């Protein structure tokens, strides 16, 4: 009986797939950036227009390695671990989305990056919203993955020049399949909505209702 059990365990051990974390390209460097009363771990690589990738709840910036490998060919790619997650510090407070948006602003200031394109996932969408609401002039495009609310019309952003917001449904990138990279921000499969929005309270991280002119276009220009 024990021999059968041992054999079964060995067979299961070798037949169960192991999902290894894909490493970032060697050109990426990690930095520990002190800002906003905490220390944030960030991966930075490439050159050109800056793209920030924000992960979701229970995840880390490591999830973005497949996409970062593509984007780094033509962009400066910045991939932080959010406060309290991954290799960033775990302070007792500062977990409002407004505070985490200020964390991101501090990272960009330390890196001398003025404006960015945002790609956010899950809870990173909330941080991205708070960042765009407070620092809209610094965001040229925003890609929202796994948008939590039912329609894009639930978003309202200050009229600060952010005209292009793209919503990506779960089926478009299948985050469960970590071995498959999400589509590039230039993918024509992503829908773009151009916003003419009323200004919400800039200190709020909750999306409010907005007026949108919804037309499906490619993100690529």
Fraction of residues in helix: 10-25%
By DSSP, the count of extended strands is 9
Which oligomeric form is depicted? single chain
What radius of gyration results from the CA coordinates? 19 Å
**CATH architecture annotation name:** 3-Layer(aba) Sandwich
Unreliable spans are 4-18, 150-154, 173-221
Strand content: 15-25%
Account of the protein in words:
The chain is of the alpha/beta class. Helix content is 21%, strand content 23%. The longest helix has 14 residues, at 2-15. It has a nine-stranded mixed β-sheet with strand order 1-2-4-3-5-6-7-8-9. The chain has one domain (2-213): Rossmann fold.
Summarize the entry for a quick read.
With 221 residues, the chain is an alpha/beta fold. The protein contains four helices and nine strands.
How are the SSEs placed, and which strands pair?
Layout: H1 2-15, E1 29-35, E2 38-46, E3 50-54, H2 65-71, E4 76-80, H3 97-110, E5 116-121, H4 123-134, E6 139-145, E7 164-168, E8 191-195, E9 212-213
Parallel strand pairs: 3-4, 3-5, 5-6, 6-7
Antiparallel strand pairs: 1-2, 2-4, 7-8, 8-9
